[in-house]
Predict the 3D structure of the following.
Amino acid sequence: MLRTQRNKGHEGRRDFLSALVKASLAVLGLGGLAGLPYFYPFSTGKEGALEFVRVFDEYSLPRRGVKKVDFTFRDQSFRVYLSNANGKIIALSPTCTHLGCQVRWNPFKNEFDCPCHGSAFDITGKVIGGPAPRPLTRLPYKIVNGDFYIGVRT
Amino acid sequence: MIDLIVRVLDRLFRLREPHKGFLSRSVPVKLNFSYCFGGMAFVCFMTSVVTGLMLSVYYVPSATDAYKSVLEINNAVWGGWLIRSLHKWSATILIIFIVFHTVRVFVYKAYRPPRELNWIAGSLTLVLVLASGFTGYLLPWDQKAYWATVVGTSMGGTVPGIGPFVVMLLRGGAEVQGATLIRFYSLHVLWIPVFMFMVLWAHFHMVKRQGISGGL
Ligand code: HEM
Ligand code: FES
């Protein structure tokens, strides 16, 4: 059985509720307006601006082969492989281009091995095996006044 | 001001008159706040719909660009981080409210005839919402998303007999890959919302027709 209550003696409550509904609609409308800039294609400029971080002086660069460099910058830790194949330094990101596992330099086979699905990259980052679709990402670097800087995006 | 807008709209569309019965219908005497859980779930659902539509403006459903586009939403789009958080949290809280709502219906025995069918419709919304959560979780295409989906879809493999077939069907291939992302994206933004709206419409229609059950 449905026991019912008609709004006798509840006019005040009814008015209050309808005022509440209208106020909510107003808030929603204003909220919608405030959200319009979301659709406008400008950038907040927060996204990874390239910044150069000093890691060591240029004499610490590898003469040949590969050197692993770990450093922190703004509370984030970074790992970069510096490789010197034939006199030219290349800074490589260790993030596998397949699905983003961290590759390791294997000095016995002279290649970067990915532990996840077996991708392999040569000393210049070129894919020599496995499912990786692209070579390892090369990072920008610069040498200023004998100091070696790596470009990172935070 | 709002009154004016409401009056003008009503003048144009005359929505108030046919809904008189609904807007001033009878309700049980002993209502309490636990009867609000269904409505609160609906508010969460509408929030995830609106914010989801907004995310879809920038999200790119492709294996190469999905992750990048989510980063862009977070960092470059004005208010994008807020919309993304709202989407995630409204979806999460939605599940909580659905569970509370279900408990309320159960405790008040509101599932009894003539409302059996509405209990079933309600259960369907829960299944759809869980499916939405599962498919949506893959979309950022980061490590957590990828491996969660590898684990989740592999559970389909335990179905006796047709297990391997189920996994292929879920993944759109032998492994979780680009095809899985597209498939989940389609489910997440098209199939599930369409079915959700149909089921919710039925759910609310039955509430309207049958009234709210009379309490304990
Ligand atoms: C019409 C409705 C919806 C649309 C159009 C939509 C759209 C989207 C889009 C484009 C994304 C990717 C962006 C991102 O990852 O942040 C996403 C993510 C997601 N969606 Fe939805 N969505 C809808 C409803 C729902 C519902 C009802 C749930 C309920 C559980 C849900 C749960 C999720 C989750 C868990 C994510 C991942 C969020 C994250 O990682 O931050 N979505 N949705
Ligand atoms: S992530 Fe490196 S091979 Fe798959």
Summary: The longest helix of chain A spans residues 11-34. The longest strand of chain A covers residues 65-73. Residues 64 and 84 of chain A are 5 Å apart (CA to CA). Chain A touches chain B at residues 1-7, 22-23, 25-26, 35, 37-40, 42-48, 99-100 (CB under 8 Å).
